[in-house]
User: What shape does this take?
Amino acid sequence: MSVKSISKTLNTLDYFLESDSRKGISLKEICDHLGFKKSAAHHMLSTICDQGYLYQDLKSKKYFLGSKLKKFGEVIDLNANSFINFAEPFIKKINDTTGEAVHLASFEGTKLITLSMLESVHPVRVDHGFLNKDNAFHATASGKAMLAYMSEVSQKKILKAKLEKFTNHTITNINLLTNELKKIKKNGFATDDEEFQPGVFCVGYPIFDDEQRPFASVSCSSPKFKITTDKKYLEKIKNSVKFSALEIGKYFKKTRKKGDKHAA
Assistant: This one.
């Protein structure tokens, strides 16, 4: 199978995932949306159906997601849950120590996603607007902590996207962001100084897998006035997040000893 054929197949599956495919998608819809020729598309879809990734209803002639994809989802859930379950006691430790909001995040392709989170226990707390902002990789400590340690190729893939401006402090210039990432790599941690939400300061540390690649990150967000009025409070947060990031990273040593393959 050529690279072009693989790309067409993956684009087709992406279309099913992005569309409301529960009612089925017709051959015409697929061709119109993806620009495929009908004969070539029919052959490709038949092959995908034979492999179990899609199936065609014989009455309506429409295509639906197949059982094979569901099995992939189950495997992914198991891998993700295993990591999250291991990480949660250390996320809670940060929350117990600081009382502030804590995020466990990772990249899914080029999108920044939240794996787990805990709310602040303080009366004055930060908002969790981060949850639905998968394009905030450049404006959050979580995103920048991972980006700084990625390979140049991986960085470029992610930074192709537009750098959205969330506040007046958001870094939207690629050269400035590149310099920021170099500083983060040198210091070992990232900060978000009102770059994503006004009045919020965040500290994030990367979590490395057994090959020293940034698999995830853990961060702690606090109202900025607490940081500016008490410098020791910032050190308390940094120390707590750093400790938990290192402890969570031991997950990969644990799974490798058992011969398991972790999600990458």
